[in-house]
Fold these 4 entries.
Entry 1:
Amino acid sequence: MAAETRGPRRNPEEAFNAVGDHIGGDREQLLSFGTDEDLASVVQPGSDLVILAQVQSLFRWAQLSSIWPMTFGLACCAIEMMSAAGTRYDLDRFGAGAMRATPRQSDLMIVSGTVTAKMATRVKRLYDQMPDPKWVIAMGSCAIGGGPYFKHGYHVVKGVDMMIPVDVYVPGCPPRPEVLLEGLMRLQDKIRGKKGRLVRPKWIDDYITRIPD
Amino acid sequence: MILPKLQHAPASRPGDRARTMKSELLHINMGPQHPSTHGVLRLFITTDGEVVHSVTPYIGYLHRCAEKKAEGNTYHQYIVYTDRMDYLSAMNSNWGYCMAVEKLMEINGMGVEIPEYAEYVRVIIAELNRIASHLIAFGTYGLDIGAMTPFFHALREREAILNIFEKVCGARLMYSYYVVGGVKWDIPPDALEEIELFVKLFPDKLREYNELLTTNKIFVERTANVGVIDEDLAVAYGCTGPVLRGAGVKWDLRKDQGYSIYDRFDFEIPVGGGDMGTVGDCWDRYWVRMLEMEQSLAIVEQALQQMPREGEIMAEMPRRLKIPNSEVFFRSECPKGELGFYILSDGGDVPFRCKVRSPAFHNLHVIEEVGAGQMISDLVATVGSLDLVLGEIDR
């Protein structure tokens, strides 16, 4: 009865076979091994299984499971970033809750807010101070491309990607904390080695078919 | 600026090396990326050991051209930019701007009468946002001092308020809910129920905060008698809001200027009394905010009782707002202090010039006077107690 209350667990043999399939597969699949689900299913207390994997993919698994962001609040989006780290949304569930106050200890820079001309050089310097590997999330429409200050915003940098490379763009003004969490998960996918793809929502396809020629 | 005399620590023994060591001033930049400057504030500090010799705030790292934007946007379009000035209390900023434009219309004989129902909706939502803003001030001040737990408690209650705002206007942070002449949407019935529930439950939470942080011995030691801003200094620097009231000055525009329908409610203006130390210290400013949350709650409670069941939410407004050449300055009481809008119109549908008098800008500059002579750790406590929002300072 006790085992049932703990939820379904995979048989170790079955899990080993699943991993074996991975290893027997092609190179792309081998690289994508190392997702947390795979490891969690195989590594069970009491089992004496040997896991074969590339060191690189194990490192990736470790990196994506403990992304430490920098507390780098620029403007309004920083409040939503605080909310994401706060009580209801709890960024820590994704291993990204350890906010570091210094760039030297952080892996991820969430550019949360408007980057101005005066701040731009500082953003660049902070990025340079972060140790590799490092990632950047551009949060909010200001960081993506100037946002509501695009026109007449004489002091606003039109997008932080003019200064530093950006991995994930999180749109919104400001984005809800859920959107930031989604952006973080897409970043984890990217670290995992998944290729990005353009997904067109279904409603656009439906809409296009209805447009008369 | 007159700097206070430096106090050197006396050498522990005669002939101690420390006595003969020459002390040098050290220049330190605190910010623009610093966890306890609440945004991108840069403080240029000259220190003598652990003691701050002088401190100069450098601002402009978040200058987003908000005043210039007014000259290219119509009176209605500019409301969204007032959201982004003080992003912790966007409703209050919206309201201040809308009232300024309404005043400008009144001067030119185009005055509109705000429906009574809309006035009540405005008051309820603005006071809820005041509570939300003070909750962030309370939570982050705990973080600055080194207490992590209050932050999570404060955010929990703030999410309850944001839930209400989402039901009312659909947004979590940038509302643009107030428009010239009223409000944009009616409060849905389930949101009203939620407000009533919040009013019922929140006093218990306030008690919880007071047990958690207000009377905490470490917190009191860190904040009492620290960063004392007395009455004269606060008035001389143009401080407003909890900073001024914390210094013992009973000044609140909701009573002293009496805009909107605030004369219909019975509430008090809390002032600092030096309960834990000197009048006007960090603890007093913090305590004034805690008391203000209580008073805001009382206003919301009374407004819910007095509010008519239903009514108009918007006055009759011209489709395109064009105001003849005139000027107005209107200020309102925001959570941070007095927010003033000076609008100069020239007959077109956009303002010719819009100047914003932001409370946090004036509250910040008192740090030059107060910060000198403090320990560095006390400077952090003082900056935190001013409750700065950089979006509003730099605009």
Entry 2:
Amino acid sequence: MTIPVADLADPPKPPMFGERQRFMLLLIAPAVVALIFFQIVPILTGANASFRDWSLHDPKYTWVGLKHYWYVLSDPGFVWTVMPNTLVFMAVSVAVSLVFGLGLALILNRQFAGRAVLQTILLLPLMVAPVVAAIMIRWMFNDQFGIVNVVFEALGLPQQPWLAQRWTAFGVILVADIWLWTPWFALLLLAGLQSLPKEPFEAAAIDGASRWRVFRYLTLPMLRSVMVVCIVIRGIDAFRTFDIVWTISAGGPARSTELFSIYAYIEAFQAMNFARGSAAAIIGAIIIVVLAMVVFRLLNRWMEVSK
Amino acid sequence: MGLPTHTARRHLLSGLAALGLALALPAAAEAQVELKVGYMKHPIQDASLDMMDKWAKANNVKLTRVAMAYNIFMEKVTATLTSGNDQFDVIWHNDDWGQLWEKWLEPTDDVAGMDTMSKSPLDAFWSADKKMTVVPMAYTVGTFFYRSDLVKPEEVPKTFDQLVSVSQRLQKEGKVKWGYVGGMSFNNTWFAQWWTMWANNCDIFHPLFERDNVKLKAAGFKPAIADPCHRQVIEFWWDAINTHKISPPGMTAYGRNEANALFMAGDAAFTLVDSTHYGDFMDPNKSKIVGKIGMAPFPVGPNAKVPTAWHEIWGWGIPKGSPPEKKKLAKAMLGAMMLDEEGQIEMWKKTGGPPPNNKILAKIAATDPVFKQLQNAVFDQKPVTHSAYYFAEWPAVHKAYSDVTIKALSGKREDIQKTLEEGAPLLTKAATN
């Protein structure tokens, strides 16, 4: 008796992806394509440029190795002004926005008349484009026409040339950023507050715990996971802030309020050295990845300890 | 008896194809060609574009205006040009970045009306193979404006010292809050540091007032910013802001918009800006000083004897990446603009931008009293300097210069010389990249 050839062949392999997986892949395909073309390809192009002689107006594309990286890392302006500015900006903006956001979230977590209206008003900054907000703030702090100096004058205080000095200009930038981002913290922390279980708070109320003790020993620990996520996401975002700084001070006076993204932009597009700007951007990216990992681990450890 | 099905289908398809062709042909014949112009929103450019629009409508061309902010214009257009794409068919061109784009722009020597233009303002726009790469739109001339209702022509300051004394008198009399306002921050350097630098017989690099790149390179791009003539200029501004208080304390952060806003609000007696802003100063919707503005030669610094001036141009360039048929149309359109007498006179009246066509300019000069003032303030003055350098690294030098001088102005007076000396090598570094 002969056995049919078909019966001797290996049984057909199941497809690599089932129908469900294929459908899921199809759904994410547009996002992946967009990510590849608008994120991955530009990053690879920039990384490639950072190793070459690639001026914006006359690119030669010749390989120069780490020359641009060395230039950036040995530039006193980058090391002693740009990086400290960036780290201070990130720390202060995130910390103050977090504190204000938490305060707002605690207020909004209570029931009172007009709560919905207040919530809408407090969220308004989130709806304003950062550049628009920055233009408004720039004029508010104008030394001649600005409302801030009008208030100072009314209070008998000396008028200030806010944008003409390093630390006042830096302060204005921080005010703008904190104003823009506090509602974001408030929104996420409010969602976190509303998802907390009620039982521990009821038990604390029965035990007669004070408001401060409830906040210190119940609310804050239970909200930490949300806070960690907020801090890490916002920290990364703050590190690469560009728009409000560019609009308010353009990194001035005399490059004294430059953050790392402004530095990269100036090198790439004002000094016309695309390669050097790319090298600065890659260095910044490495720093923020390392920093984010460290912060995340520290905060995680803090959470574990506090448990 | 009917046709077989396949024959009927073939006839139907042929009929549809013929109908489609019949509809498409006239449409193709009448289709408008689009010319895209990359520009900055500015009265002078809008006036120039209006002239082009006139030509475009008469020639069935669709003119699309793509406005970009001044702060990012040069960077954005440089990236576009070097990518070789055809995003723009015409772009705003400026002597500040003349040499930066020489490789990427179409020669314009053959555009009608180019022979009506003075040669010196075109120095920035020659390509390496000696071809012109711009079609002028208007002269941009730094102009010293004063409040004619407060200062008689004979009282207009002729020296830096007089600028201080007249300003202080007007401030003391309560007529103005400030004496002089002008943009200082990058890239508004012309409106304070630079006009006073040239008016003090000084410059950025040695040899002073040299614009030949070969000679500048041979001199090692040696900065002049720590020279006594330049220190005097920075000290003048430091004193103007901090000691004499004739200029606002925040002026180091001002662009020309802030300075113009103060001048138009009637808060300052003097300013210096391109004459192309005269239209704004005379616009009752924007300005409180309409009809109260005079023009005069630059006040002179202690290191100079006579006023100086600059007359550069703004213009239009045609990217090499634009398709050949569009380049041809762009040249025809720009030629029509250059020869549009009525349009150029209108542009002058509306904006204060002197037309580039010398024949038309002469007609205006013969009859227009405002132009006579401008002629005295700028065009009649000798020596004439160029208000920029013409090598590709110039934008980086400009930025470095701005940073050094703003740092000097933001610090202590006694540190000015030290800051300039420390900053000077940064200019050489920027020039030699």
Entry 3:
Amino acid sequence: MKKDVFAVEIIQDSLLAIGDEMFVALARSSMSPVIYEVLDYACGLTDAKGNLISQGNGVTSFIGMLSPMVQRVIEKFDNGKKLHEGDVIIINDPYVGGGSHLSDVGLVLPIFYNGEIIAYSANKAHWTEVGGMDPGSFTSNSNEIYQEGLQLPGVKLYHQGELNDAVYEIISTNVRLSELSIGDMFAQVAALKTGEKRIAELCQKFGAESVKLSIQKLLDKGEKIVEHELQHLPKGEFYAEDFIEGDPLKGGPYPIKVKVTISDEEFICDFRGSHPAVNVPMNCSQFGLMASVRVMFLALLGDIDVINEGVFKRLTIITDDNSIVSAKRPHPVSMNFEARIGAADLIWKALAPHLPERLSAGHLQSVCTFILTGKNPENDESFLIVEPSVGGWGAANDEDGQSGQYCMGDGETYNLPVEIAETKYGIQIDEYSLNCDGAGAGQFRGGLGVRRVYTVNHNGQKVSVNLGRHQFAPFGLNGGGEGSHNYLIIHKKDGTKIGPVGVLANYELQKGDRIELVTATGGGYGHPHERSTEAIERDLLNEYISVEVAKQQYGYHNA
Amino acid sequence: MKIATDIGGTFTDLVFTDEKGNLHFDKGHTTPGHFEDGILNVLERHVTEDSLIESFIHGSTVIINTLTERKGGVVGLITTKGFRDVIEIARGNRPDLYNFKYKKPEPFVERYLRQEIDERIDFKGNIMKALNTEEVDEIVHKFKELGVEAIAISLIHGYKNPIHEQQLKEAILKIWPEVYITLSSETIKEYREYERTNTTVLNSYVKPIAHAYLKSLKEKLSTIGITDHLKIMQSNGGTTSFDKAMELPINLVESGPVAGMFGAAKLGQLLNESNIIAFDVGGTTAKCSLITDGKVNVTTDYYIERNEKFAGYPIKTPVVDIVEIGNGGGSIARVDQFGSLKVGPDSAGANPGPVAYGLGNTQPTITDANVYLGRLSLENFDNPVSINKVEEALVEAIAKPFHVSAEEAAQGILDIANSNMLNALKLISIRKGYDPEDFTMVAFGGGGPLHAINLAEELGMKKVIIPYGSSVFSALGMMMTEYRQDYIQTSLMGFDHHHLAAIQENIDQVIANAYADAPLSKDHYYFEINYDLRYKGQEHAVKLNASTITLDEEGLLELAEAFHIKHKQEFSFDLPATPIELVNLHLTIYGKDEAVQFKELDFSSIDGSTCVKAQRNLYVKGTGWVEVNVYDQQKLVPGYVITGPAIVENPTSTVVINDKQSIEIDKYGNLIVEMEGK
């Protein structure tokens, strides 16, 4: 065994690199901007039992989806006994392991070495289209899952290396723009095979036993890290309550609550008592919830360099049956990230006062989905813009909040440059600036949101938005003020206006109308009177705050 | 006499040719704060009153240092109304996914130094709203009051039609003639407002410093009679004049490192090796770059300070595509809190340096592992090396916690370091769709030759070349460069016969601009044109090289054909039925100046039979200690084939070859390693 000590290091290093390589491979061969630009996907490896070994992510939440998905597949196929070399399973069921919404389509490939399953490679990617009532399969209008697109319950896309034509045809017939979705599906398969190939190479070089040993040691290490980090977390029970904002025309807001219990051995999040599942698509399933809670858990642990199944061993989630954060079929889940992130944000809110070195005050929280469809005035071609929006993050105990950043559920996500948007879609954007109004006052000031203004230059374009934190602002901390709200206003050419609104579905626009999207500013930290004169004066100089705000909120009178 | 000087962190390297064209090397200490003094010190040893200076090429880290140390000038930014915050919003991404206290890059120009001006140009380049220059007086007044030293102007769609940027510049210079101004349209004509604005701001930021440095260097050089043919190395692998560098100093950001990559490409052309992985290991980092079809790959996808946890700052200027990792000779090995062996990115640097330097460091480094295993000679060091101290460091830091011997610990350090370097090499090759087996490795820098053999073996490569002068190869590469400027213009349109005339019109325009910009007359240059093409609806583009600057129907079809093939290679799929779009035209203009060539060496006075200078114990993984011959590279003659295991040394570099591999010197003084023997 002595000789193996450094081999273990190198195998582990290789296992981590494989997750990354699969991630890059998928981006490289995808045809959809939502994958290769927005990076809305993840690739990873699990061991033979479905324990996560390593994963490459572009957005945060997928970290909690791949291994439960593999575990679901193992369970479904008779503890893996009905899986063969060359099989690939396709699955997007939101209500079982690894589920979020139908748009996120997962693939799982068992990796055999000498006739034995040694690992699984898996990935999950946001498809541009999975069918359903609205183009883009992204709807705030559904009231049950059947409207949201094609459901794939975990079936063999490949059987022993042969493409399953029946499944392939069902998919290509049921989705719009099937070339893109099918292209992405094959890109996902190619990425899985990269993982398979690399694992086989590792086994050949170091022997399957060494690889297995290294995997086990890696998982142990993950667990050890968390045991160690748990010691540094505050102990006890922590509570928070908040709301998931639905579509005000259909109901809501829906109360949610959490009790977080932390001991040296365990981290338990109990969401019982939250609102029952609703008939608007802001629900998430218990597996969607798990994904976001895992993200939150990682954020609490701080900077750890190994993230695998071992890390999550001490994490437990409890919910009621069929609540807004544990919805069951057929409750709609298209905008599931609103409930998912809302629930994770509750943990944030409960713990932030006790863990200031890791957590700031409240942030924009919502993905702030902005959808614009219509025709390009240049060439009359149809376009579909689906864009998340950046906004303000909360202030922390040692710094002002960050301005113009995506919410916690996103990650390595990039905004759409104005010059590209205008060139590609023929639209007109008049302003992309910081929104300083209402930034949470405090010793440290909340981060700034943004204001993005469009002038509609073609009749018949339609806008949809889904903005959380519209009715309830991001929370302040330790005496700091609340931030401001996300909202959209349509300034119509005739002088009237629609809004401010938080949810809008397929609103038809006329040439000359102006769309003003404004995102939230973050919450403040500490009492505003504690803010240094220097910082206040800097803010005045930079026009982050007005003289009036300086006087009224910060008690500054030298201006 | 032709001269190249390259300023590194520790040493300032000098390469020059004598009247016969023979190459000579020297080095002196770098003098931080006043780099020009260090250059003068080493030059004065060789340049006399009688020297006839044909060219002076300079590579410098002044620009990158100014940026990373935040020592630039005060910049005022002017943008289109409604967009002054673009530079602060940036792209909104958070690479450190689970860090909810992530700090995004702070802009190099604070908000109070950002002014907006009423104007608007649309994406087709049409003026939607005329420029209102009445506001200029007030802006200038404010900027002066705020101590602005350099102005950056970046207007929306300025890449498409620079007229407003130019008018604004004129209006400002009228009332403030001495201020430094940079237009976004002068830096790069590519769309994406954040990236272009940031590039423009960073250019403005370094401009006052670059100006002062180059002016001072010019004055100092003139004191030893070097007054003409002054050139400076750019990030794109070519040179430019001092004057031009003062205008666009941001083009020098990777001035030094790219020269070695360019040299590797040149060497490849000489030796008929068109596919090369260039590999450079220094004291703190390892860098690698892929060379295909004999050319370095130039990209505008370049960032400073970017890493897996920080978004960094984009600089959209043409830069040779290099991947760099924090593993070099001085990288420190340690056991982390969870019992894993880590190597780098912390480095012992040049002082105290590795344990072997005897300057007080007790943490083992990659160099120490190489020393302990007999791979590096103790005589390579200026000081007497205490092998006991090296052993003690290895035992305490690594061997004890892992319960292994000192040899195994040292081998472990090398294994981990090689694994890190392998990841970087795979990043530029396998992950981009290239098979390393089709490439030859050219390894240089202080540590490149020492690591290259094992890495090439892992990658299944057939041949490794250790170039003549490998430890000063960056300066050597610089000698061989020529004038080069890149002009990139976003010209979005269908790449089809309907647009043939429009494409040609754009090409002609770019060429006309390039001629207007070039310091000499037309006949001093030659062109190369690249098309950035993509499938309609897709975002990622593929760069394709065309042989002529006129595009006819046939040429268009050939390029389309080539595009499908290259797209499939880079992105693993093609869409033959999908229309192709032109994104950017990329024109490169090269000077026809006579670059220095590699020269055949005179071996006539060398007695090859004395090339074995010693025997040394070498630790071979899996075998243990073996006694091997140590060869003196300076005594090798072509035709003499050495079979491994063996060590070949010269005063500044060492190569260790393994069982069955062979090594032979060629007529240019390069060491050629055949991985499967000869």
Entry 4:
Amino acid sequence: MVRRPDLSAPMTVAELVQYGPLPGVRILGTTGRGTQVLDVRIVDRREALDHLRPHTAVVLTEALARSGWTVEIALRKAWEQAAACVVVPDTAAAVHPPGALADRLGVPLLLIGGDALEGAVRIASAVSRPDAGRTALLADAAQRLAAAGPHVERVLTALHAALPSTSLALTDPVGGMLAGRRAALDSAHPVRLDVPGPDGHPLAVLVADSRSGEAGWASTVEAVLRMAVPPLTAWAATRRLAEEHLARRSEMLLHQLTHPPEGEDEQTRTRIRAEAAALGWPLAGPLIAFALRPAVAADAGAAPLPGPALRALWTRYGIGGPLIAYEDCWVSWRSAAVGSPVPDPEVWLRQGEAQLRTAVRAIGDHLPLAGGVAGPAGDTGTLGVALADARAAAAVAAVPGSVVRADRMGPAQLLSALPAEALRRPAEVVLAPLLAADRDGTLLRTLAVVLDQGAAPSAAAELLGVHRNTVAARLERIRSLGFDPEDPAQRLALHLACRVLLTEP
Amino acid sequence: MTPGEETALDAARLEDLARGALVLAAGAEHSSHRASLDWARAALAEHGPVPLIHPGDLGSGRMCVTVSMLGSSAALAEQLPTGEEPRRAVRALERRLGRAADAVVPLNTAAENALLAVVTAASCGLPLVDGDGCGRVLPLLEQTTFTIAGVDVAPVALATPAGDVVVVDAAGSRVEELVRPLVLAAGGWAVAACYAMDGERLAAAVVPGTVSRALAAGRPTQGDPFTLWQPRPRRLGIGRITAVEHPATPGPDTTGGTALPSRPTSVVVSETEGLHRRFRLEAHNEALLVLADGAPAAAAPDQILMLSAADQRVLDVERALPGIEVEIVVIPAAPAWHTPQGRRLAAAGGLLLLSPDHEPDARQMKRPDAERPEETRW
């Protein structure tokens, strides 16, 4: 149910200021702003202050307002006779107008630009037809919003212009500042309105500082904000379309770049390279390829869903370069020579691995990822191969936050990429005699490490932290149970079973 | 004068008087005040202490004359007195009236005028009346309780430091206009002897006790300068000056290019005790009005003073600065000033009267220094 502002209730002092019938008005005194204004009285002689009616806006002429003490007497007389406020021309006001006294007496002091008599006429017309003022405000806001179009900054500018002395901000659903004035967030009397996205989910929140707790004003502010929702939703929709469009175009471009069709002419290739360069893609080799894979995405084949989010995170924490959907993961690449003085592929790869690990961990707080690094590719012609390698490495790096180099994929990493759950039962059958004899898992761990180390007992002993003879003794026991790590017929099955069983379920 | 009070002004009391005379003239020029004090010291040293008499003790058939400094007090420090001026002025008046003076009355007991009265009494060998014709300070020669009581200011005998003596006999309202150019022509200042009257009329018209109250105010050991004052000054409150403003655009009623000491000034004082009110003092030459939270708390012709809380000395409006802690004190004017005639007379000199009855009308509310140079205030 949309609350409509109460159009015909008498105007309050706060509304008189907010609706803007008074150009360049300033209000002093924080109390008494909710007082209703029913009448206007122009005062050009001090004696006239002795006979004021309640709820009157007392307008002092410039000649009277020029002496500060007369303004103070007017505030006092207004207080004594329950007048609504005292209005003086800004030009006549003293350097330090008596705001403290206005505060103390609870009688707001309005400083208006322009002539006192003109101000009095404006107040009189606003007071006599409060609905006209409110309607005019809504109409003005509608026109400004229509002119602004679906652009968030312009919408907020239009709102600020339509609601004088009101601060507005656009925040995300949890309150993070997106646009506008921060002052709106500290408001004591905020007006909030949810802005739904094109998909109907909460997109953002419009917050206005209504400055005063008056119910009438708050509902007017809300009515104005409500008019701003469609352009903001439209803004989000156009932005999403553009994002989608860019993503699709990038995918196509990367494909064209890495898979040049047979017989491609020079002109086409130049055009594609120019387009890629325009997007800021590194094209000069050698190139280091990166791949990112959401660690939770189990369904292979589908492109990872959180594209815009990942793109935003990559922009913030990533190592630069584009981020493009590539089969079931995301890829990026950068020029290896940048920031690396030594022309050594090993150095480039190590550096790339370290950088990607940092990025993956930072992004991991928001989105669990695993990464792969490959390369270097000599130029864009071989970039496709490097990207495929990086993707394969990322597929192997199953643990969130881990990064694997394509040229360093060991058996353990390959094996750990296997679907452990499906293979657990067969592995238990294969190793059944060993498991039966192995109470604390020592034999299983020893067998796995020995197999990892290519059946070299001394290397295994070092990794296990025991004496070489101990490993030899354990191997002897394992052999006695019917398993021989050096038997080529058994070795792969044993290694596989050990790794599957050692993988945490 | 309370019983048991000193009845003679000697050299020591003179120092008290000099200090106490500044209560009503905090803005007095330091150099001219020093010059007058030196003059009075010399006169007392030469002629001995001056007897102080109660106005009521004079009785009928004895004539007293009022003395006042006319012109610029600054000129006094530049053109030092010969010492003969007061006596020559009194003698000229005596010759004009054909009778001898029996006592000297100060026009007001503020700054140079209090000391001049002592000099006159000493050099003429006459007693000094404990009282004056104003009870406060007003700029014009005719603004006295004597005028309110119907005593004529004329004839006025002027004696200048150059040795001239002029006696002006004019219808009351024209004295000021006649005397002013004379004083300017004479070099900037002169001593006037005027308001000759007999003791009985004096007793009815004078503001009594002003000399002894100035003596009390100037006594060095006194913390409160107003202990002996009757009626008791009203203390409005203690606060800190938070703003001193000079209206940026003077209104059309202050044209005439008034010089510095007389520009309109507003002093805002935030009360530090009690109700924490906001006082606003409106001053033009002197504080004319004080508002407490926008409501008039006191107005001229009552005298509004700021006492520095640190030393209980009167703080001149021109020396008010934000941060100074002050006490706002109101000294009620003599009752004669609150009569309709008194209020009109006080306003004639330019004193802006802002009391609830809205007198006087706009014509009389003209600023004091619009047409008249500052120098002719005393």
